[in-house]
């Protein structure tokens, strides 16, 4: 048991060292996995390397490449312009629209991509007299919801890790749970931060606050989506809202170009295929499907495809791969089973589940959400193996609990929302309120998810 406990302490220590030195967690984890596997577990190197998740690598590469083409050929910008123009001056709809837009972008491979809406949304909030806290939470909850789509990072890591461990988790179920929970949080944000007043106001604010343009916003050192380090979000003026976005000469809206129409069709085809296969009871390989649709777009627009190559998220591939490789070594040593035994010693499986979800939320508020998902999902499997906890419900609860705290200003998402608040005088208030919201979610998330998913599942 001493060896297993030592391996677990090294695992936790690598997380701490990565945060302290602002170093890439995945690289450190892979090196530590090799050291622990060879030195403590006496594993052959080939067996250690075999734990690297090739299936998740294909998922991440395929999805980020496909949606990288959509960014490169301007399709994403055109969709944003059309959506914002459709709202007009109906301010009460704006928070919901930004929730949907952010969720849509976050569903396209990387949740961090949804942060492109932060400078736009916070600028619109200043112009239209919307509480910046309401707009910030609209963007934050949209990012969390979209991130669990079958085509996005949180969803890929969560259900991919669960499936590798033999837990039957439908990716669409995970996505629906995330969307419903985040919509409830958005509703709460409306009630708390001025949404009801927007219903009663019909006049359009004439305040013309400056909207961020080409200057990047550099934000805090905690990374909730990647490997750590500061995040720089730079949004060109072409992505910012105006009185007539996407209009050509004479005030007419420009039609989608032929290549952009093909990209929209491919996006609809990818999503439709995933949904159809899931409803048919089959397990869609989203990475392979994304590469297949991406190959078609590559033939149609080779120039955009070349620009999409840098969009492939190799940093996250290393992050997830390193953590899962180390978890494989822990599993071989029996350390995961030992952790599960400690959790079950709490005595009540429901309390053990609540404890794991609390850990997921608390650590994720200050560190990597992706890392938490890759680490805690396997560590929770002994509870599933006991037969008292429904596996799909537990994995969904861990995933969503680790994500909804990301608006904490100590993470990349929250720090970006603070940094892009137009009124500098509001930023201390935003920091204070986002801290309270994020830490409240550390408790509210587990209670809500365990109470609505795990407890009813245990009763069935």
TrEMBL record:
Q: Where are the transmembrane segments?
A: 26-45, 52-72, 92-122, 134-160, 172-193, 261-280, 286-305, 317-336, 342-367, 379-405, 437-459
Here the segments flagged for biased composition (Low complexity) are: 230-246
Return the annotated region ranges for Disordered.
Answer: 206-251
Annotated Dicarboxylate carrier MatC N-terminal domain ranges read 1-147
N-terminal signal peptide: none
Q: Which InterPro entries match?
A: MatC_N
Q: Which UniProt keywords apply?
A: Membrane, Transmembrane, Transmembrane helix
Name of the protein this chain belongs to? SLC13 family permease
